[in-house]
Write a structure and sequence with these properties.
Largest sheet: 6 strands, antiparallel
Number of helices: 14
Strand content: 15-25%
Oligomer: single chain
CATH architecture of the largest domain: Sandwich
Number of domains: 3
Strand order of the largest sheet: 4-1-6-11-8-9
Helix content: 40-55%
Number of strands: 12
CATH class of the largest domain: Mainly Beta
Structural class: alpha+beta
């Protein structure tokens, strides 16, 4: 009886110690997640990292779970804590919790950054994991994992001696490709064999719009002016523009990457601005990313609500230059873009264009449920 009581007491004590350690780790992670800019909370964060180091391998999974919805600064602290802890465990000859970390990597609901960190840590100890894990990740929520999976298929396709097998591998790679350079490689290979590749659809570019203008933007003053399309989006409307009466006209593009080139398709009106609109029909309410590239100043509205703006002229332009989270409702979603050109005459300041696509967080295209003709409604009423 005496020994039974001692054993029970010991188990209770050990459980209490374990619970205390878990509580300390949880508090340390909360401290890292609360770290602010300009060294705000830095001293407390350093102490929290030291505490997690003491926890050893038991700290690794809680740290990874702490990445979810953490700020970029907090992610940096958490990454440092994980890397230092893992390195300390290796140097001490203690194995990392491989099975639990593998499970975390395969859990698609986890933070992409944390999943990648866990994967790279596992890969450090076992390079063969790349062959096991990466082929599973062609449609992964993490763009980095997708890129690796696509890269493997591209290598296989380039090395294949059978043309049909090579083309099949390129087509398979295209299903998961979200990075422009890889998609270009795939398109070049497929088109070189006479295969059709619709890059506009693959990336989800919106290529058919209505445009109205020019309105005055001399001395860059028009950016702040509320012209009629911002108050009432009526596609039958006619207004006083910079050079006379203006009305909505259709504009579209056949460019692979959805570039609407106002300068070449209409005119490079210096010191002017244009409004462009289209609609995107969605089957349900959802969070999307509007991905925009332009060298011009711009403002963007979705369903009458401003979602982002940037008053900067003639910076370099590239695909997915801006990634704007937006909430789409079920049915038609009205997109309005204000695009501004200034009066600079240098050769590098002549581009007047944009490209816009709708994607999920990985960069994979989201496609509208209606055709382009159905999207361009004759009158959209108020924003």
């Amino acid at each position: 009886m005496h020994w039974c009581l001692v054993t029970v007491s010991l188990l209770v004590a050990l459980t209490s110690i374990s619970a205390t350690a878990d509580d300390q780790a949880a508090q340390a992670i909360r401290t890292l997640r609360a770290a602010g800019p300009r060294a705000e909370g830095a001293a407390a964060a350093r102490s929290a990292v030291d505490l997690l180091l003491q926890g050893g391998q038991d700290s690794l999974l809680p740290i990874l779970h702490g990445f979810r919805d953490a700020s970029p600064l907090a992610v940096n602290w958490l990454r440092s804590a994980f890397e230092r802890t893992a390195d300390r465990e290796r140097k001490a000859g203690r194995p990392l919790p491989r099975a639990q970390m593998l499970e975390f990597v395969r859990d698609l609901s986890g933070s992409p950054a944390a999943r990648r960190l866990a994967y790279e840590s596992l890969l450090h100890d076992d390079a063969s994991l790349e062959q096991t894990l990466i082929p599973e990740m062609l449609l992964d929520p993490s763009p980095e994992f997708r890129r690796d999976a696509v890269a493997r298929l591209l290598t296989e396709a380039a090395a294949a001696t059978d043309k049909a097998a090579s083309l099949q591998l390129y087509r398979q790679a295209l299903q998961g490709a979200v990075h422009q350079d890889q998609v270009k490689t795939i398109a070049t290979a497929l088109r070189g064999d006479g295969q059709a590749v619709d890059l506009q659809r693959h990336f989800g570019f919106l290529t058919e719009w209505r445009v109205i203008g020019p309105f005055d933007n001399k001395e860059e003053k028009g950016y702040a002016v509320i012209y009629p399309p911002e108050e009432l989006l009526d596609l039958q409307g006619e207004y006083d523009g910079q050079l006379g009466k203006v009305r909505w006209e259709p504009i579209s593009t056949t460019d692979d990457f959805g570039i609407i080139d106002i300068a070449s398709q209409i005119s490079n009106h210096k010191g002017s601005l244009m409004y462009l609109t289209t609609t995107f029909s969605s089957t349900d309410e959802r969070t999307v990313e509007i991905r925009l590239g332009t060298p011009n100043a711009w403002k963007l509205w979705v369903n009458g609500r401003p979602v982002f703006e940037r008053e900067e002229y003639h910076r370099s332009s590239q695909m997915d230059q801006y990634r704007i989270p937006a909430e789409f409702r079920s049915g038609a979603n009205v997109i309005l873009l204000k695009l501004c050109q200034n009066e600079q005459t240098q050769e590098w300041a002549q581009k007047y264009e944009f490209q816009l696509r709708i994607s999920d967080a990985t960069g994979a295209a989201l496609l509208p449920t209606l055709t382009s003709a159905q999207r361009l409604l004759p009158s959209l009423g108020r924003n």
